Amino acid sequence: MEKQQVIQAAERLFPICAGNQVAEEVAISAELAGLTIFEAPLVGIGSAQDPLFQTFLDPAVIGPWFKQPQEWLEGAQTVVSFFFPFTEEIRRANRKQTTDPSAQWLHGRIEGEAYLHSFITALGAWFEEQGIRTCAPMTDSRFLPVHNGNRFHEYGCVTEKTFGSNWSERHIAYLCGLGTFGLSKGLITEKGMAGRFTSIILDEKILPDERPYTEVYEYCIHCGACIRRCPAGAITEQEKDHTVCRPWLLQMAQRYAPRYGCGLCQTGVPCESRNPSKKK
Ligand code: SF4
Ligand code: SF4
Questions:
Q1: Taking all residues of the chain, what is their mean pLDDT, rounded to a whole number?
Q2: Whole-angstrom Cα distance, residue 38 to residue 192?
Q3: In which band, very low, low, confident or very high, does the pLDDT at 146 lie, cut at 50, 70 and 90?
Q4: pLDDT band for position 162 (50/70/90)?
Q5: Per-residue pLDDT tens for 207-243?
Q6: Would you call 257 exposed, middle or buried from its count of C-beta atoms within 10 A (0-12, 13-18, 19+)?
């Protein structure tokens, strides 16, 4: 299969999958009914045999709990990564916030996640129609989401700062050529960082994209804006401390249940919607 066919399928499914507009019955307020969550996605292709996958097993990168593509899908050949940027309306609303997330951002985070499930499920069905077997880890029962490491003690290398899942969408996007990490540990793409990622594994060969970077932080200009934006003080020049970010998110989860989110480090910063290492 050619990458172009995947792009065409994604373009066709993007507007027709349910949930990219906030439904009236779940809208936080009447004026948010119909809010559009995502713009059309960027698409990156990676080889399931890419040696970079082995480096993800290093606890300094993700950890030995990271599942290789072949563990998710026997005969895995290709990984396709998608970045869905948040719309300007969602980003603008969060840009104004100084402590709590905007209602628009909360919708993007929660209803946006539900939309990604519907998109990647529909795309998986399309691949299956083409005779291609698939696995989308985000919808798979074996997926262990981002966590502080308590689940992974059997591996013997967790610390109180260990934080990760057994399939990291940001690392997959990096491998597939979509972008590099920033100081805030988000992934900076050509359409910035404010958005969400998803991916799907295929047993079909597609020519992988060449990564247009060699360094993990190549697109980050180290401006420090995310450090100043973080209401919890979780980001420093040296690291993002998940043991500080996580309790803040839990506080937001209690305040805005059943939704949660923050994303202040992704909005009102130079990498919000573009790659700041490139001239405008
Ligand atoms: S705000 Fe600046 S320092 Fe932080 S991730 Fe973006 S470019 Fe890097
Ligand atoms: S690092 Fe965490 S707490 Fe700080 S702005 Fe980002 S999401 Fe919010």
A1: 93
A2: 13
A3: low
A4: low
A5: 999 999 999 999 999 999 999 999 999 999 988 888 8
A6: exposed
> DSSP label at 235?
B
**238 burial level (CB within 10 Å; 0-12, 13-18, 19+):** exposed
Residue 79 tokens, joined: 């990984």
Q: Identify whether 85 is preceded by a cis peptide bond (ω within 30 of 0).
A: no
Distance of alpha carbon 36 from alpha carbon 115, whole angstroms:
11
CB atoms within 10 A of CB 216: 11
The C-alpha atoms of residue 275 and residue 84 are separated, in whole angstroms, by 15
Separation between Cα atoms, residue 144 and residue 242, nearest integer Å: 17
- On whether the CB atoms of residues 85 and 192 are closer than 8 A, the answer is yes
| φ and ψ of 116, to 5 deg | -60, -40
* Rounded distance from Cα 261 to ligand 2 centre (Å): 9
What tokens does 51 get?
């040696």
CA of 245 to the centre of ligand 1 (A): 16
Q: In ligand 1, which atom is closest to the CA atom of 221?
A: 7
Confidence of residue 145 (pLDDT cuts 50, 70, 90): confident
> Which residues does a 6 A CB cutoff place in the pocket of ligand 1?
182-184, 220-226, 269-271, 276
Q: What is the pLDDT of residue 15?
A: 97
Is the pLDDT at 163 greater than 70? The verdict is no
Nearest ligand 1 atom to alpha carbon 229: 1
d(CA 10, CA 13): 5
Name the one residue in this structure whose structure tokens are 């690392």. Answer: 171
Spacing, Cα 125 to ligand 2 middle (Å): 35
Q: Which amino acid is residue 42, in one-letter code? A: L
Helices 103-129 + 88-95 axis angle, to 10: 150
Give the C-alpha separation, 38 to 83, whole Å: 10
- Ligand number nearest CA of 278 is 1
